[in-house]
């Protein structure tokens, strides 16, 4: 048995099998959630590359799997990331049962996760681009329920993600062709620019991100939340892994300056657009962009505290997006419009969903007592000390996003003229209340949770030596 079989092949085969059981939605969703939780537990408990004794049995979990001459490698360095990814998947698949997601959600969700982990594990790096593209293609049935037309937001998502693939392939071919010291010095900066364009298209960096709010507005928020939670995080980790492997990139101060500027532009523009949004589902998209901007800015500082802040920010990011997507899904499932003109009385009909929606947005804004506050505070302190010229622009973006959230709050608290009946069921309230509980726990006891997730940086060990 090898680690890639356990965490890549088994989810892929399980997803294909669940596709055959797609008509039995509860069974397929339950198996997907249970398998994800089981794989998360195994990633936490089983060391890779060491002999495990179970009674009289001796089992060794090998690090590598070779397919068609290409190797897939998972080591103990990847185990913390596997725990985070599969725990998040277990939560999303479990929530999908309660929120009555379509029959393709669980099967294709597992296959998407398998492709993303394969991209993180494959060597040479350039094949990661093909696996990310496979994950994007598998996301389309997940985003478009059976029988519904493909909206323009999904089409643009596919176009921009596909456009990024050839750039990554070309850059991966250059940097993976051998000793880069033998290359013409003029080639490497050009390859770095090509690599940056590829990741900019994948991550939806300004000005390539306008498909994100369109996607969240035109698709079911739960499916969009699943894709926009796992795909950008996996892409960011893939980028860190690649930078860690290439010494020339690690030593390039210009590259990290460009990453800083890209992150700053995402924070500013997402904050300004959020301030003028009249549709909460589009604000969801700008929240994703806002979070990615902070992640890029933390990476661009190129210091160990910056990388640690990036890693610590993954949990509140995933949790905030999950609570926000769940709250919007409750409203969507009850045919409740989310534009400002139709929000009067919504708090009377969906009290827990509205509270979850507002608090998730406030958490992303960095309001005290919520999950996002400790990381936002640390990030702002780091930016102020390392890049004082940028902090004013970052605060401007923060202010714009906060204004957008306050506008949402002012509209959702308007009461209807007549008494309204509560439309949430107890299962929907339960999952939202659990999410809200963790929003507060992460905010009140950040050290308990964040210290454990820091270990995901082992994926890029060379970056741990940053100054």
From TrEMBL:
Protein localization: Cell membrane; Membrane
Major location (coarse): membrane
Presence of keyword Transmembrane helix: yes
Pfam family, one: Proton_antipo_M
A GO MF label: oxidoreductase activity
InterPro entries for this protein: ComplexI-like_HydComp, ND/Mrp_TM
Transmembrane segments: 6-21, 26-48, 81-99, 104-121, 127-145, 157-175, 187-212, 224-248, 254-276, 283-301, 307-331, 352-370, 390-410, 431-457
Membrane topology listed for this record: Multi-pass membrane protein
Keywords of the record: Cell membrane, Membrane, Oxidoreductase, Transmembrane, Transmembrane helix
Top-level taxon: Bacteria
GO CC, alphabetical: plasma membrane
Domain NADH:quinone oxidoreductase/Mrp antiporter transmembrane: 193-389
Keyword Membrane among record annotations: yes
Protein name as annotated: NADH:quinone oxidoreductase/Mrp antiporter transmembrane domain-containing protein
Organism (species): Bellilinea caldifistulae
